[in-house]
Amino acid sequence: MPSQRPRPLARGSEVLATTCRRYRGRMRIRSETARDQAAVEAVHRVAFGDHGHAVAALLRPLRRRARTRRGVSLVVETDGRVVGHVMVTHAWLDAPRRIVDVHVLSPLAVLPSHQGRGIGGALVHAGVARIERRGGPAVFLEGSPAYYSRLGFEAASPVGFRSPSLRIPDAAFQVLRLPAWEGWMTGTLVYPDVFWELDAVGLRDPA
Ligand SMILES: CC(C)(COP(=O)(O)OP(=O)(O)OC[C@H]1O[C@@H](n2cnc3c(N)ncnc32)[C@H](O)[C@@H]1OP(=O)(O)O)[C@@H](O)C(=O)NCCC(=O)NCCS
């Protein structure tokens, strides 16, 4: 049973401070503004390569959703240039007791020229820290366990969560339980329409 309390999360600000030292203070994480939108799309197109177009298509509807449901959209800027972006938006957990408001981290990207310097990790921590401050109990994602386990995420199925699709490899379905999470908050993650409308859930068989 999923009774274990989540471990404390390294603060986004601590990770950011470490990363900033590497950049000698030339890097900052801030909320995305309307003026950043083209640069943010470009980051995803370049970072995701062949999938860049599909990921960029998610941004507009996710931004709209982030506005009405208090999501998070953060950019990393170095020397006045946007080099990374993360979005964390609202979803539901169909728990036995009631529907619980949770969040999904997607998408995340850093320009290839700036990868491997801790920027992706700093963005994840900063995004999650904002959800934690607002009392959100959990952040879910689909991604590489090798990457996200370093950032505090764990496989979601063994702790009692059900994936929204059988096409998400079990190891890729991950969660970060936050201090507001309680043991009864298990059940099925329900993605908002946006991900389904754009067929952006899990992996499809190659044609
Ligand atoms: C994933 C991504 C955001 C990481 O950004 P970053 O700024 O390079 O991340 P960090 O600097 O915090 O971490 C880099 C480390 O993660 C590792 N890493 C990056 N992507 C990885 C992956 N998919 N699986 C496992 N490890 C990964 C790197 O090899 C590096 O390891 P090292 O520290 O041992 O050298 C970036 O590689 C990217 O934009 N990739 C393309 C888009 C993408 O895949 N987004 C995530 C979708 S789930």
Show the helix and strand layout.
Elements: H1 12-22, E1 27-31, H2 37-48, H3 52-68, E2 72-78, E3 81-94, E4 99-110, H4 119-133, E5 138-142, H5 145-148, E6 154-155, E7 161-162, E8 173-177, E9 187-190, H6 193-197
Parallel strand pairs: 4-5, 7-9
Antiparallel strand pairs: 1-2, 2-3, 3-4, 3-9, 5-8, 6-8
Bound molecules: coenzyme A.
Coenzyme A binds at residues 47-48, 108-110, 115-121, 143-144, 146-147.
Describe this structure in words.
By secondary structure, the protein is of the alpha+beta class. It has a single domain (12-197), classed as Aminopeptidase (3-Layer(aba) Sandwich). 31% of the residues lie in helices and 27% in strands. The chain contains 6 helices and 9 strands. Strands 1, 2, 3, 4, 5, 6, 7, 8 and 9 form a 9-stranded mixed sheet that branches. α1 (12-22) runs antiparallel to α4 and α2 crosses α3 (52-68). The model has no long low-confidence stretch (mean pLDDT 91). Coenzyme A (COA) binds next to α2, β4, α4 and α5.
Largest sheet: 9 strands, mixed
Write down the secondary-structure element order: HEHHEEEHEHEEEEH
How much of the polypeptide forms β-strand, as a percent range? 25-35%
- Provide the number of structural domains: 1
The whole-angstrom Rg is 16 Å
What is the overall shape?
Answer: globular
End-to-end C-alpha gap: 39 Å
Low-confidence stretches: none
Mean pLDDT: 91
Bound molecules: coenzyme A
Can you tell me the CATH class? Alpha Beta
Q: Could you tell me the number of beta strands?
A: 9
CATH topology: Aminopeptidase
Strand-pairing-aware structural class: alpha+beta
